[in-house]
TrEMBL record:
<protein>
    <submittedName>
        <fullName>Uncharacterized protein</fullName>
    </submittedName>
</protein>
Length: 167
């Protein structure tokens, strides 16, 4: 009966444990399996190609996104560097202003100190003149107002001329 199915000259199928296995390459069962295997392989290759294509597209999109992010970061860095430069300029300007004010403060303190010294000196000299006048008045019994006025005008001239030279 197997000869009827497979014909003469063809190898007979193998039978194991009551199961029939086709072994001939030209048998319709083997051709169908080959076609199914080829179709499965083609479907697998197509699926793999689609996966690879999708992966490539995703990676290309990621690259474009990374380039865009890099460009944005470069612009942000440029803005930050510009702002940093402006801040450094402002800091230097403020430091110069502080140094100038400190110098002015020192100069002003020196002028005030000198002015106080001159005023103190003038007061001492005025007191000296006053005491000298009183002493002369006691000795001679005369009014030395003319001498005191001359001394006052001379001290005023020296004090104002020295103060103007420092200012």
């Amino acid at each position: 009966m197997l000869e009827f199915l497979f014909g003469r000259g063809r190898p007979k199928p193998r039978v194991e444990n009551g199961r029939v296995f086709a072994v001939h390459e030209n048998s319709p069962i083997s051709d169908q399996r080959k076609m199914a295997d080829v179709e499965d392989q083609a479907a697998n290759v197509s699926a793999e190609e689609q996966i690879h294509f999708t992966t490539i597209q995703t990676l290309q999109n990621d690259i474009l996104s990374a380039k865009s992010m890099k460009q944005q970061l470069m612009e942000d860095i440029e803005k930050m560097l510009t702002a940093k430069g402006q801040l450094c300029s402002l800091i230097i300007e403020k430091q110069r202003k502080i140094a100038s004010l400190d110098s002015d403060s020192t100069t002003l303190a020196q002028v005030i100190s000198l002015s106080l010294f001159l005023i103190t000196l003038e007061l001492i000299q005025h007191e000296k003149i006053s005491l000298s006048s009183k002493l002369i008045e006691k000795r001679t019994g005369s009014n030395p107002r003319n001498i005191e006025d001359k001394w006052k005008s001379m001290i005023w001239y020296i004090t104002t001329s020295s103060m103007l030279s420092f200012v």
